[in-house]
Structure formats: structure tokens, C-alpha cells
Model the fold of this input.
Amino acid sequence: MNFDDSYSFIYSPRPGSPAADLPDDTPQEVKLERLHRLQAQINQQCGKISQQMIGSVQRVLLEGVSKKNSEEFYGRTDNNRVVNLTSNPEQVGCFVNVRITEARSHTLRGEILHD
Done:
């Protein structure tokens, strides 16, 4: 399916759900191995998609000041990628067009295109 994000966890019974009363005969080590394999595949796909975004222009909703650098801002693309960039406070809460310049392990870098 080429997913690029996943909220994946090892199965645990949820009280009150039909599955909570079913036997669970899958060893913990097998569960962990499956989870790690799934997450590695998704991380690889995420990296590939991020690399393909370099050079593209993305519509980004500017959300606020970057958590790691108070002189920068961050926003999200339509496909929920975090982009860090230089901006000004007046643009927070607005959509801006951003050229993606770099793909990092969990974020993108970009620059705002001005009219």
C-alpha cells in the first residue's frame, strides 16, 4: 500500500471488546519482531516519499515556532509532513507555498515562495 505513517502497537486485549476473551497464543518475541519489521518498512517508505518531495512546491499550514529552533517556524503539508522554515509571526495560521529543499529523518526543510 506504500503507507508512509502508522500508529502501530503490539496487540493487547481491550476490556469489553469481543477480542478480549479470545486466546492469545502468539509469543511476545514474535509480536515484537512483527512490529519492528512493520515499522522499519513504513520508515523506509516514509524516507523515500520525503526524498521525492525535494524540489516540489507544497502548500503548508504554518502552525508556530519550531520546538528546536526559536528563530524558525514549522508547518504541515497536505500529506501531514512537518516542514521547518524561516518565516515571520504574521504568517502563523496561514497557508504558504513552500519549496522543499531537504528531507531529514522525520521532517522536511523548505523556503517560502514569495509572489
About this structure: Helices lie at 28-53. The mean pLDDT is 92. Residues 28-53 form the longest helix (26 residues). The CA atoms of residues 13 and 20 lie 5 Å apart.
